[in-house]
UniProtKB/TrEMBL annotation:
Protein name: DNA gyrase inhibitor YacG
Family matches, as InterPro entries: DNA_gyrase_inhibitor_YacG, Znf_NHR/GATA
Family, similarity comment: Belongs to the DNA gyrase inhibitor YacG family.
Organism for this UniProt entry: Pistricoccus aurantiacus
Residues reported in the UniProt entry to bind Zn(2+): 14, 17, 33, 37
Quaternary context: Interacts with GyrB.
GO molecular function, one term: DNA topoisomerase type II (double strand cut, ATP-hydrolyzing) inhibitor activity
């Protein structure tokens, strides 16, 4: 008679402290190892230590200047 063994759960590294963590439903903080690591990561996003790569967004002044320039260009070409 063969005995079935459940497969080992996937292990991932906690994004904050790099400790190995089992990727199981019981881990409420996955992919983090603890509430502390989860909150530290959230804080890093909040203070912009973590960012998504790419160009920075334009501020409102730059956008307003672009709109005014486009309106001038448009009205100048329709005269």
């Amino acid at each position: 008679m063969s005995q079935k063994t459940s497969p080992r759960p996937l292990e991932v590294a906690c994004p904050q402290c790099h400790k190995k963590v089992a990727w199981v439903e019981e881990n409420l903080y996955r992919p983090f190892c603890s509430k502390r690591c989860k909150l530290l990561d959230l804080g890093a996003w909040a203070d912009e230590s973590h960012r998504i790569a790419g160009e920075t967004a334009m501020d409102e002044t730059s956008i307003d200047e672009m709109i005014l320039q486009a309106e001038r260009d448009f009205s100048g070409s329709n005269s």
